[in-house]
């Protein structure tokens, strides 16, 4: 259909004397006028948000510029920005998300921030230069306009220029007219005609020497005598610029085809009904033939301060979020003031505030909620959003295609709201009105009165035009947001104090997740912190596993169901006393790999992991209505290294993958904070809250400051395998519990946040434990009980109860759920097991090579590797197993154990061998856990690395057997003979047992030295007589009443091994190491 273009006679008189005439069409529906935009106007509206930079002589005054002081002409020597950096201005603008920036090139003082070369005649007919410019200041030679334009283009931000035609104190001009009755010191005497010539000349400089402009500002408008020249100059020099105050609201005449109107206030608020049309200083006019979008300008400083004010308070992030919703969310461009300080930089606290607002906008509106599972269908003035599953939303974003004018006159948003118990979208429920209004225009954001769970959203509009107005990309529903200001975390723009605790899903049977999460909420926690272990999700370079305990998205869904938010700690390095800090073993075999560094191979692997994890977790992000509010970058990097290229690269990966608020977490001392922090990323500390908080404020970047969070408050400490390593707990210790309560009470009373490490530790199942290294290897025990308030088996302790009581005094009464009861553990009578097969009788096919190779090169990550060598000629001397003993080596000659070399000792045992031809030397290497903390992290190859020597002889020609024990051998034949002299090879024992009632229990293996236990195919982990762990946690979810199968790999079997039974409480204790050197 062709559109009717022209001028309606009723409007002809208004524009009869103007060369700029509006373009419009007539509605084919009701014949009403529909104003048509230019492409420049549409492009400008697409930018949505910009900044206006007040940097001029007014920056150096205690008052806000030369406004309302006609005689004030500040001394040129004041303007001395010694650190001028326009790139930093644009970097700040970019962090806000600004798409255009307008520089005040000349404000009311009359000072020009470019070296204007205009000359003019004074009243006494003397020709002089305009000598109140940057060229006469202490920074002569600089050109702020030129620098600004270059920086704006560098950052892909549309540049604009502001020039006040109405006031110029230097020329004694007020309201576009020269005051001819009096002159102050420093003022020049000119005529009105000369002033207009100066305006034309200086605007010609600005509009011809610096390139194309996105916006041109006329603050306060222009005079009637200036109009014609300005109109002609704009048409010739800047035809595509959008012109603020481009139309006169009194005459209705415009300077340009691309006018933008002022909204009429400087508070940052548009009327709820705001049209893209009309020459007004308010919400516009829907029937006007002039397309004239509104722009809302406002300050970030309080008290309407535009130029930088020393110690001037800032508006809160909550207020600025409201500004965003009441401007951009009401079809109005938002232009925030961005005032550099007197050094020429954006002050750090102000830069942080712009970033906070930008982070909020990105986190809340970066992507639609449930976008991956949403079908959007739009036809004309109707849009339908069908969600793949019930989705919680609290707002909707509507956008109108205004290419052929703004034609939507009203709209209604309806939703199919489902009850909390509905689990799919098949239920046919009635439509509920969620919001309604009149104008949409470029963008309308409607915030609902409450969060609703919907399966479908319908947007209906009333049109005056016939074209398609809502498109698939323009109707979005959004959920919650999470960001922060100087003192508070902000959930949906409201203060949120994190009362958190660490609990890792991969350490807990998934069958118990809901129970543990409820108990976290019942202690008073509102947030769960969770490590994600990369090695468990990506066991090989080409395989992924998100099942069982690795179904982390389900864990987070259950957390939300329990009323908990989540802080994601995905590493890629997490430490956590987990195998290699979470790194998968196969990284060792990538050529040139260096973990925890800016190494390209490592960053590429990390990006692949984090991107894949983000795919899995996307519905769980706060921006999509999920519980994940924040993510930590790496972990305690400041105590490890100083490669900020690495951590900055990780930050970019996290931003791209998750798009939520990020933070770093480091020890609360100067070295750790300085090493771990990143500019613009919130810095937090762990350990002592008082010391850490003070150190953070002292040593962190200004841009990294914000609310305080003790990211790991340690109640007790981890457990390590050793005869002299005891179990650490505060249970039953009233004094220790009082200290914990005091620390965390102080934290909350000071408005800060915390995460208890650990709230619930869980278990290092199978071979998941890591190891520390000081002077020797110190592997972590199987239990990760950690002395936590909730024990490994999920039992509530007196520490838990004391913390619950303390937290209840800081939260509204009735918000903590009822206290759950502890489950009752069961006892299991002695279990009869018998030898099934010797390990060396069920060996797989070997790999053969001249020299031994490391475990990872054999395609193995965990468990054991057997290295076998058949003696060809007699050899004797001390055994040297490669470059160093890696972990624990059991040495056999002719299948009789002759020694143990254990790297838990600073000086491991030396095994002397005397071998004759035909003897078989076996070296069984157990991976006791890759180092997860400290400088040894990069080199964590297991097995044997390097040549094996006996004395001075290098042994050449090896068979190598991989024994990952995942799963263990299944085919058993024959019963091995157990030596009574403790020299037997490893032996598998098996048995079955029944239970009268299924429940949790603790397996006790009296007299058993060292090995691994499986029950019904589940690897419960390692046992070792040295302690401090003397029992293995056996969850009831892994049991059944009849025919439970137990399998034990006894590494050092003896004929005196005692009873195996299930007991109702854990035993802790230590015994001497029978293999100690």
UniProtKB/TrEMBL annotation:
UniProt keyword Signal, yes or no: yes
Residues covered by the Beta-galactosidase galactose-binding domain: 986-1044
GO BP annotations, alphabetical order: carbohydrate metabolic process
Pfam families: Alpha_L_fucos, BetaGal_ABD_1, BetaGal_gal-bd, Glyco_hydro_35
Family annotation (SMART domains): Alpha_L_fucos
Catalytic activity: Hydrolysis of terminal non-reducing beta-D-galactose residues in beta-D-galactosides
Record domain Glycoside hydrolase 35 catalytic: where: 488-808
Coiled coil: none
Record domain Beta-galactosidase 1-like first all-beta: where: 852-963
Any one Gene Ontology molecular-function term assigned to this protein's record: beta-galactosidase activity
Annotated SUPFAM superfamilies: (Trans)glycosidases, Galactose-binding domain-like
Family: Belongs to the glycosyl hydrolase 35 family. Belongs to the glycosyl hydrolase 29 family.
Protein name: Beta-galactosidase
């Amino acid at each position: 259909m062709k559109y009717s273009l022209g001028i309606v006679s009723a409007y002809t008189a208004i524009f009869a004397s103007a060369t700029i005439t509006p373009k419009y069409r007539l509605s084919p529906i009701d014949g009403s006028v529909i104003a048509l935009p230019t492409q420049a106007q549409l492009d400008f509206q697409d930018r949505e948000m910009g900044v206006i930079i007040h940097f001029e002589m007014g920056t150096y005054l205690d008052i806000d510029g030369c406004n309302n002081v006609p005689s004030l002409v500040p001394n040129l020597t004041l303007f001395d920005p010694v650190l001028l950096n326009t790139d930093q201005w644009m970097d700040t603008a970019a962090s806000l998300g600004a798409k255009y920036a307008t520089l005040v090139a000349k404000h009311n003082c009359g000072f020009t921030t470019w070296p204007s070369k205009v000359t003019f005649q004074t009243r006494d007919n003397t020709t002089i230069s305009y000598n109140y410019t940057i060229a006469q200041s202490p920074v002569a030679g600089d050109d702020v306009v030129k620098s600004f334009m270059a920086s704006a283009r560098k950052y892909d931000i549309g540049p604009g220029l502001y020039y006040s035609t109405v006031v110029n104190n230097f020329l004694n001009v007020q309201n576009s007219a020269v005051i001819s009755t009096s002159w102050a010191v420093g003022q020049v005497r000119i005529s009105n005609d000369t002033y207009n010539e100066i305006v034309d000349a200086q605007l010609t400089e600005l509009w011809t020497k610096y390139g194309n402009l996105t916006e041109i500002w006329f603050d306060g408008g222009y005079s009637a005598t200036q109009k014609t020249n300005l109109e002609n100059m704009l048409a010739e020099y800047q035809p595509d610029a959008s012109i603020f105050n481009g139309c006169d609201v009194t005459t209705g005449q415009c300077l340009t085809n691309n006018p933008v109107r002022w909204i009429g206030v400087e508070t940052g608020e548009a009327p709820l009904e705001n049209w893209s049309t009309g020459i007004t200083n308010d919400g516009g006019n829907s029937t006007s033939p002039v397309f004239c979008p509104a722009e809302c300008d406002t300050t970030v400083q309080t008290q309407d301060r535009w130029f930088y004010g020393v110690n001037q308070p800032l508006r809160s992030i909550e207020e600025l979020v409201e500004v965003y919703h009441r401007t951009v969310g009401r079809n109005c461009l938002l232009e925030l003031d961005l005032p550099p300080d007197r050094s020429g930089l954006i002050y750090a606290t102000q830069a942080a505030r712009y970033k906070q607002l930008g982070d909020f906008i990105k986190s809340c509106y970066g992507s639609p909620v449930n976008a991956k599972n949403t079908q959007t269908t739009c036809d004309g003035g109707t849009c339908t959003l069908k969600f793949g599953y019930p989705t919680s939303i609290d707002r909707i974003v509507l956008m109108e295609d205004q290419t052929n004018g703004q034609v939507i006159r009203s709209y209604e948003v309806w939703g199919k709201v489902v009850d909390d118990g509905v689990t799919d979208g098949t239920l046919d429920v009635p439509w509920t009105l969620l919001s309604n209004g009149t104008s949409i225009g470029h963008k309308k954001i409607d915030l609902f009165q409450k969060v609703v769970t919907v399966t479908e959203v319908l947007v209906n509009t009333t049109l005056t035009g016939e074209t398609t107005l809502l498109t698939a990309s323009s109707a979005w529903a959004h959920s919650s947001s999470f960001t922060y200001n100087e003192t508070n975390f902000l959930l949906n723009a409201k203060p949120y104090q994190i009362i958190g605790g660490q609990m890792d899903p991969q350490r807990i049977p998934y069958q118990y997740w809901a129970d543990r999460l409820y108990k976290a909420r019942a202690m008073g926690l509102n947030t769960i912190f969770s490590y994600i272990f990369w090695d468990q999700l990506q066991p090989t370079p080409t395989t992924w596993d998100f099942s069982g305990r690795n179904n982390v998205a389900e864990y987070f869904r259950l957390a939300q169901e329990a009323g908990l938010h989540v802080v994601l700690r995905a590493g890629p390095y997490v430490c956590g006393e987990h195998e290699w800090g979470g790194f998968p073993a196969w990284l060792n075999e990538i050529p040139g790999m260096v973990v925890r560094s800016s190494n390209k191979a490592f960053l590429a692997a990390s990006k692949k992991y984090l991107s894949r994890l983000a795919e899995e977790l996307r519905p769980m992000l706060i921006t999509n209505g999920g519980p994940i509010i924040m993510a930590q970058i790496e972990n305690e990097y400041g105590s490890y290294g100083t490669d900020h290229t690495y951590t900055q690269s990780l930050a970019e990966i996290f931003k791209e993958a998750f798009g939520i608020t990020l933070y770093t977490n480091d020890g609360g001392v100067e070295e750790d904070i300085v090493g771990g922090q990143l500019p613009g990323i919130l810095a937090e500390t762990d350990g002592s809250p008082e010391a850490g908080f003070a150190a953070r404020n002292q040593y962190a970047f200004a841009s990294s400051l914000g609310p305080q969070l003790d990211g790991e408050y340690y109640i007790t400490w981890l457990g390590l395998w050793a005869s002299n390593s005891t179990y650490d707990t505060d249970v039953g210790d009233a004094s220790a519990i009082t200290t914990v309560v005091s620390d965390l009470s102080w934290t909350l009373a000071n408005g800060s946040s915390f995460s208890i490490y650990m709230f619930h530790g869980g278990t290092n199942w199978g071979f998941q434990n890591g190891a520390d290294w000081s002077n020797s290897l110190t592997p972590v025990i199987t239990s990760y009980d950690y002395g936590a308030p909730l024990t490994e088996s999920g039992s509530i302790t007196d520490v838990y109860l004391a913390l619950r009581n303390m937290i209840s005094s800081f939260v509204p009464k009735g918000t903590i759920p009822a206290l759950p009861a502890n489950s009752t553990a069961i006892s299991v009578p002695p279990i009869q097991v018998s030898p099934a097969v010797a390990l060396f009788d069920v060996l797989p096919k070997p790999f053969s090579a001249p020299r031994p190779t490391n475990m990872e090169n054999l395609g193995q990550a965990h468990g054991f590797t057997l290295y076998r060598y058949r003696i060809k000629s007699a050899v004797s001397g001390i055994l040297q197993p490669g470059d160093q003993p890696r972990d624990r080596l059991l040495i056999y000659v002719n299948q009789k154990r002759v020694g143990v070399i254990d790297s838990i000792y600073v000086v491991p045992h030396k095994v002397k061998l005397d071998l004759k031809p035909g003897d078989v030397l076996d070296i069984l290497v157990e991976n006791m856990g890759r180092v997860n903390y400290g400088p040894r992290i990069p080199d964590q190859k297991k097995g044997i690395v390097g040549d094996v020597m006996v004395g001075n002889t290098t042994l050449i020609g090896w068979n190598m057997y991989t024994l990952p024990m995942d799963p263990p051998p299944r085919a058993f034949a024959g019963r091995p003979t157990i030596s009574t002299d403790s020299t037997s090879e490893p032996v598998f024992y098996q048995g079955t047992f029944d239970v009268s009632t299924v429940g949790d229990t603790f397996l006790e293996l009296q007299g058993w030295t060292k090995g691994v236990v499986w029950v019904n195919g589940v690897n419960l982990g390692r046992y070792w007589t040295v302690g401090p762990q003397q029992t293995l946690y056996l969850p009831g979810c892994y049991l059944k009443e009849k025919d439970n199968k137990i399998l034990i790999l006894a590494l050092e079997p003896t004929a005196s091994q005692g009873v195996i039974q299930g007991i109702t409480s854990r035993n802790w204790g230590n015994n001497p190491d029978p293999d100690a050197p």
